[in-house]
Design brief:
The complex is a heterodimer of chains A (296) and B (108). Chain A has helices at 3-13, 18-31, 35-53, 57-94, 99-102, 104-139, 143-159, 162-170, 184-187, 190-218, 227-245, 248-255, 275-295. Chain A is an all-alpha fold. In chain A, α4 runs antiparallel to α6 (104-139), α6 (104-139) packs across α10 (190-218) and α7 runs antiparallel to α10 (190-218). The two termini of chain A are 41 Å apart. The N and C termini of chain B lie far apart (31 Å). The radius of gyration of chain B is 15 Å and the shape is globular. Chain B has a two-stranded antiparallel ribbon. In chain B, β1 and β2 form a beta hairpin. Classes of the chains: A mainly alpha (296), B alpha+beta (108). The A-B interface holds A 19-20, 22-27, 29-31, 41-42, 44-49, 52 and B 21-23, 26-27, 38-41, 43-44, 59, 62-63, 65-67, 69-72.
């Protein structure tokens, strides 16, 4: 078996229980199985195990209540952030002049916009990580299928332009890029309408959520102190994600009144986005510190 | 009532005795049937038999010939032996007097 085949077989067999993974790997070594044979066998076993798991109602609940909504929410928010930041990117990168730096007022604007965009990027990264973390922690053995479906839902949402029609339905605070006639010049550039949102989705949604899934799966093996606090923070982060993409309910609530009052200035829930990853980092570092001190 | 593959697995495990584990059972079944036995079928059937209470499995010792990995050992318990015997008797009874049974009986 080549090194690549071995790596591939081991990667697939991670979907199995540790004991079974060891027994199966040992069987391959003993029988002298070739790479393709081993891969076919392990894929067959993983498929059978997954089919058994999906006979239960729990994975379906996770899929319907978590995987699909989170993928759509993240798709929506990543598109809002990509569209919003592409305006600044176009403004500064496509029309760069050193006046932005030399002029004091323009410099302050540049720093302010850059900080705001970076904060949004960081928040999106944290939301994605937290969504992946929840997915990993709740999916357990169905994680491989859930992760594949999560990625598929992200891709489909992007390909089917879900953010666009969901944006209309949800009455977002500002129209999304493609329908925005004021900023039509920016969105007529293919890079800003297609490539940039895909880059944002890949680096700030897909990769961080996979990282989160990994941490979520690892959670089962750790006995973290005060898991309730961690979960409260994770839920707060996911709620903030929902609120970020659904300002609609605030509008709807006010629109339903006989004499709609002006929309109140509601505080941003952006800082809450950081709660999930930060609480996990705090919990794991205190756990490992305690374990190290016990070992000493 | 057992299924065909369950019966094959139980029989192979009984034949191997103390040396019954995943890879050995697989080789035994392949040698007896002349067909390929997939690892997926083997381990899911083992689980099913264990759930039915017909076999007991546990992780054995790691051996160098397996790259230091442990075996999944199998032991057929009394209920498993009874189920296999019952399946065999049913097959023997239902096959009695049919052409292929007579042909097999005449084999050296």
């Amino acid at each position: 078996m080549s090194r690549f085949s071995r790596w591939l077989v081991e990667a697939v067999s991670r979907a199995l229980e540790p004991d079974e993974q060891e027994a199966v790997s040992g069987d391959f070594v003993e029988c002298g199985a070739t790479g393709p044979q081993a891969l076919r066998d392990v894929l067959g076993l993983v498929a059978r195990r997954q089919l058994e798991l999906w006979k239960n109602w729990r994975p379906w609940l996770t899929l319907c209540a978590m995987v699909v909504p989170l993928a759509i929410l993240l798709s929506l928010v990543s598109r809002i952030i990509a569209d919003g930041s592409s305006l600044y990117a176009w403004m500064y990168l496509n029309n760069w002049t050193w006046t932005y730096v030399t002029n004091a007022g323009a410099r302050i604007d540049l720093i302010g916009y850059a900080a705001a965009v970076l904060l949004k990027f960081l928040a999106l990264l944290c939301w994605s990580w937290t969504a992946g973390f929840m997915l990993g922690a709740c999916s357990r053995r169905t994680a491989p299928v859930n992760v594949a479906l999560f990625c598929l839902a992200l891709v489909l949402a992007e390909l089917l332009d879900a953010p666009r029609y969901l944006g209309h339905w949800l009455i977002l605070p500002r129209p999304l890029g493609h329908t925005d006639s004021v900023h039509g010049g920016v969105y007529s550039v293919m890079f800003y309408s297609v490539v940039f949102p895909l880059i944002i989705q890949m680096f700030l949604v897909v990769l961080p959520s996979m990282w989160g899934v990994r941490n979520g799966l690892r959670l089962q093996t750790l006995r973290l102190p005060r898991p309730t606090i961690l979960w409260a923070c994770v839920l707060a982060t996911v709620t903030a994600l929902g609120t970020e993409s659904s300002v609609w309910w605030q509008f709807r609530t006010w629109d339903l009144r006989p004499n709609p009052a002006p929309v109140p200035h509601l505080p941003s829930l952006l800082p809450v986005a950081f709660l999930g990853p930060v609480s996990y980092w705090v919990a794991t570092s205190s756990y490992f510190k305690k374990r190290e001190s016990k070992e000493i | 009532m057992l299924g065909e593959f369950e019966y094959l697995l139980l029989t192979a495990a009984v034949r191997l005795g103390e040396d019954a584990y995943g890879a050995a059972i697989r080789q035994e079944i392949e040698a007896a049937t002349g067909r390929r036995c997939s690892i997926g079928a083997l381990y899911t059937t083992l689980d099913r038999l264990e759930t039915k209470g017909l076999v007991k499995t546990w992780m054995g010792d790691a051996t160098p010939q397996r790259g230091g990995r442990a075996k999944r050992m199998v032991r057929v318990n009394a209920k498993g032996v009874q189920a296999a015997a019952s399946f065999y008797n049913a097959i023997a009874r239902v096959s009695h007097g049919v052409s292929w049974e007579a042909k097999r009986a005449g084999e050296p």
